[in-house]
Amino acid sequence: MDTQTWSAELEDIFVNQRPRLCCVAAKVLGNADQADDVVQDAYLKISEATTLFEIKQPISYVSRVVRNLAIDRCRRSAFESALFAKAEEGDNACCASHSPEVIAIDRQALAQVVESLNELPERTRRAFELYRSGNHTQREVALQLGVSTTSVNFMIRDALTHCHQSLQGRSLPDK
């Protein structure tokens, strides 16, 4: 199959099977907006593939790619939640119960996160802030920044990874 034929067949699958593909992703994610983002990511991933190979059941192949990307998104979301769970738990905690040492350590960690965010490229930092602090969807962030949702996804992942590595690399005061 040549590139042009595959491209036309791929577009046909994503146009005609979009509701089905969104349903596949939504079953994994439990969220229709995220499912739509995953289907878009799948289209980009498959259409940007540089190697062509014969696919006997293209609809099944595309469905599998959508499902795998949805699973990846769930895993990434779980990773992000675990990474920031301590900070989010702190939002509901009573500050009076913390010792001065714990407060100092938490402030140092927050300063480290702010510093590591400032080390990022402006667009990556902005995407992360809009998504995590501004409560915008990845699609909304993409529109504001004029990039694809896939790019936003990678920027958020890069920012999270950078912050995580920064926190892991810092030395904690002796107890």
UniProtKB/TrEMBL annotation:
Keyword Cell membrane among UniProt keywords: no
Q: Does the keyword NAD apply?
A: no
> Which family does this protein fall into?
Belongs to the sigma-70 factor family. ECF subfamily.
Which domain of life, per UniProt?
A: Bacteria
High-level lineage: Bacteria, Pseudomonadati, Pseudomonadota, Gammaproteobacteria, Oceanospirillales
**Which organism was this protein described from?**
Vreelandella olivaria
Protein name, entry field? DNA-directed RNA polymerase sigma-70 factor
Q: Keywords, A to Z?
A: DNA-directed RNA polymerase, Sigma factor, Transcription, Transcription regulation
Using the record's annotation, list all stretches that form the RNA polymerase sigma-70 region domain. 18-78
Q: Which InterPro entries match?
A: RNA_pol_sigma-70-like (IPR039425), RNA_pol_sigma-70_dom (IPR014284), RNA_pol_sigma70_r2 (IPR007627), RNA_pol_sigma70_r4_t2 (IPR013249), RNA_pol_sigma_r2 (IPR013325), RNA_pol_sigma_r3/r4-like (IPR013324), WH-like_DNA-bd_sf (IPR036388)
Domain named RNA polymerase sigma factor 70 region 4 type: residues: 112-163
GO cellular component labels: DNA-directed RNA polymerase complex
